[in-house]
Amino acid sequence: MKEILINWLKKQRRRPKVARLPLRHNRATAETPPASNIKAELFSVDQMERYGQRLARSHKLATHKTPYYLLKRLDNNEQVLTDSCRRLSNDKKNTMTPAGDWLLDNFYLIEEQIRVVRHHLPKTFGRGLPQLTAPHNCPRIFDIATEAIAHGDGRWDAESLTRYIAAYQKEANLTLGELWALPGMLRLALIENLRRVAVEVAQAQEERSLADSWVTKMLESAENDPANLIIVIADMARSNPPRTSAFVAELVRRLQGHGTMLALPLTWVEQRLAEVSLTSDELIHRFNQQLAVSQLSVSNSIAGLRQLSEMDWAEFVETMSKVDQTLREDPTGVYPLMHFDTRDNYRHVIERLARHCSHNEVEVAQHALNMARIAAEDPRNDPRTHHIGYYLIDHGRAQLEQQLDVRLSRITRIRQALSQSPLLSWLGSISLLTTACWALLLRHAHQTGLTWGLLILLFPLGMVLAQFVISLLSEITTRSRSPQPLPRLDFSCGIPAEFRTLVAIPTLISSKPGIDQLINTLEVCYLGNAIKHLHFALLTDFNDSPRQQHPDDVELLAYASQKMNELNAQYACEGPSHFFPVPSRSSVE
């Protein structure tokens, strides 16, 4: 009977495979590109460095605009990940694989990272990135990030990434926008990798569940109705179950150890696998390897997402930026000492100029540097012209734009013209709009007939219109103009000796209690800013008087000096004198 059943099962014709339906809630269409090849050979740090140069030589930039699909791909990845995790969480009968546990336990982190990507990589930003030609058809920095994740199986570190990007830039410079976009692109690549593993893990879990259901039916039939066992096996054969490692491993694991009664399905499985030159032992070994690989890939990707939030990307961008390296050659030596916000503002100016001329960002920075060097060679020039920032954010900007042949829009040129004479622009705009409103009122009054009552009413109405015009212009100016931060030096690690600073507080002294209050205020200021090479002073003067000096002036000034000396003695352990009385000329003459 056993041989007859086996021969019948072998002769059964397989049913044609039906196309798998798309995942639930999956709205992927032809607009969504295929998944990136996020799995590749593992490279060491040295191999990644060499690969970076080869990758740069293989990249070809597109000369025309290409579709920006990364956000659509992100939406699709989110849907697939959500669906895969839902399928995993709904399977409560079978033991979850380690990779599945990692996905479910860290799904909140994946959702958070997806929100971060949407916030930092809007569509308008992505379209400004250099694009690659076919077959990539994606931003260049995305392909760079994808390769880094693919050759590390989701694992990356600061040293490997730094050497990889530095090697790439030996062949082709990356723009500032690309460097700032790298963290977001790495997140996209890691999410892409998690999507790939999630689909594999969810599929394997469903196949294990399918195997478990057939084994459960066989065990129930063998226990309750042994004669019906052959029918159950025949039903499983007609269903054409998958010959995957997950299905076979679970089926064999459940069937082993139940004696000769369930040896028939094991024999059928071995014969099915023999048709494709496989054995159950090979598939079980392959499944165990897949479990380990999937767990490692998920854990690496989750750890990589966490590491992205811990890395100082501002320092990374400055280290990798060729523009920053050029600006640090500032003839005055001031640029490296500036605060990060100021240096970043300089770089953004270069980025904007490069968009409106035929030069790249490094060439724009080099032009500004050359102009500063030429100015520094002539000592008769204003010392401000020796600094590279003079040609980026000051009056030398027009010279730089002329040299670069910058093609600005008409609106931008109007804004620049208005910003050069802000007071005249403000008063002129108010006068123009107010005059226009008055002209409309007078025209309307003339058409309807001008009366004394209407004429009297026009004056308060004109004042209201003027106030409305001022409020309207203030609102427009606030919304259309961003504040221009003043350049500043970086004193986050303290004030160097060459920049010793004195904070002078001008004040009037009239009585000893008033002096005590001033001394207390000065002490609070010092305690809140106890920085080396920072000193405080009271710039004192006396109340108005018909006489130049009063008998009490000398006594009050001596009392203020005494209190200052007491403060210096109190904090003498923290360095030299921090407090100084500075009398005005009128108090000492």
UniProtKB/TrEMBL annotation:
Transmembrane segments: 423-442, 454-473
Keywords annotated in UniProt: Membrane, Transmembrane, Transmembrane helix
Protein name from the UniProt record: Cellobiose phosphorylase
Lineage, opening ranks: Bacteria, Pseudomonadati, Pseudomonadota, Gammaproteobacteria, Enterobacterales
